[in-house]
Specification:
alpha/beta, TIM Barrel, 10-stranded mixed β-sheet, two-stranded antiparallel sheet, 12 strands, 17% strand, binds ligand PBG
């Protein structure tokens, strides 16, 4: 062979490979999703080994541990008691509810950690949808937004740094931005679930919170969320959603799920001047966990390669249940 161009020269030693490496993971890239419940013990989520529904005390310790590992932001998800779930999900703006209590406690005990919240009705709704469901099974857009605004204000008032609308109602980012500003929360940011697809990868999350759409004898309940979450077949539509969210005041744009949607991360990072976040969702976590528990793949290597792929695609931030493990492994490396 007589080639003057030999790409392998730059792969020859560890030192050279590190010199020319284009992307690097660090713990500050991670946002760590944490489940919490109103009990005094922690409970492992069956489809997500190593991930728990935390009691408040245990959660504080877990967040301190995450901070020590270099993680700078967490996102909170509540497992709400069945008897607090209603058709309008009003528990979501109860100032004395689980999430506001957790935020206040965290801001006292670990004030340096940034806190992101989730805005949507599903954990609070007996129907298990992100918005209000009418008699015929329609998800009501504008009526839902009025409740989401109250939810966001309650979270901001408790001390949240970032509000995370995950509901996919039209116009919700703008409405939330306006009510935050009107109430003096001009510095509270919005990490918007911008391109959130109607995905089967959310299964373990829904069982963790018992938040899947459920039958209601009074009315029709759509079995899936496809009338508001995006069609997995669509990419162009992600440009529309990101234009809207950016125009309406989102600070960071999220793509969700991450792994099957790396092309969307890539496109939005080229299209937008906002930072992009990728959500490495529950089903993606469970697949890697299951295969590694079977001994079929090497967990550490597969996790780090997966997380790196989000950065290569263009994400600055990665929401991942692997966050603490990965931060630990990065330290070791
Ligand atoms: C709630 C919400 C969901 C997730 C984050 N926020 C589930 C859904 O939309 O049904 C999924 C996260 C995951 O699967 O890890 N609106």
């Amino acid at each position: 062979m007589n080639s003057i161009i030999r790409p392998r020269r730059l792969r020859r030693t560890e030192a050279i490979r590190q010199m020319v490496s284009e992307n690097k993971l660090s713990p500050e890239d991670f946002i760590y999703p944490i489940f919490v419940h109103d009990k005094d013990f922690k409970e492992e989520i069956s489809a997500m080994p190593g991930i728990f529904r935390w009691d408040i005390k245990g959660l504080i310790e877990e967040v301190k541990r995450a901070w020590e590992l270099g993680i700078r932001c967490i996102v909170l998800f509540p497992k709400v008691d069945d008897n607090l779930k209603t058709e309008d999900g009003a528990e979501c703006f109860n100032e004395a509810g689980l999430i506001p209590r957790v935020i206040r406690k965290l801001k006292k005990e670990v004030p340096q950690m940034a806190i992101m919240t989730d805005v949507a009705l599903d954990p609070y709704s007996c129907d298990g949808h992100d918005g209000l469901v009418d008699q015929d099974g329609n998800i009501l857009n504008d009526e839902t937004i009025a409740i989401l605004e109250k939810q966001a204000l309650t979270q901001a008032d408790a001390g949240a740094d970032f509000i995370g609308p995950s509901d996919m109602m039209d116009g919700r980012v703008g409405a939330i931005r306006k009510s935050l500003d009107k109430n003096g929360f001009i510095d509270v940011g919005i990490i918007s679930y911008t391109a959130k697809y109607s995905s089967a990868y959310y299964g373990p999350f829904r069982s963790a919170l018992d938040s899947a759409p459920r039958l209601n004898s009074n009315k029709l309940i759509p079995k899936n969320k496809s009338s508001y979450q995006m069609d997995p077949a669509n990419a162009k539509e992600a440009y529309l959603e990101s234009s809207l969210d950016q125009f309406e005041g989102a600070d960071i744009l999220m793509v969700k799920p991450g792994l099957s949607y790396l092309d969307i991360i890539y496109r939005l990072n080229n299209f937008s001047n906002k930072p992009i976040a990728a959500y490495n969702v529950s089903g993606e976590f469970s697949m890697i966990k299951a295969a590694s528990m079977k001994g079929w793949i090497n967990e550490k290597d597969v996790v780090l390669e997966t997380l790196l792929s989000f950065k290569r695609a263009g994400a600055k931030l990665i929401l991942s249940y692997h966050a603490c493990d990965a931060a630990n492994w990065l330290k070791e490396n």
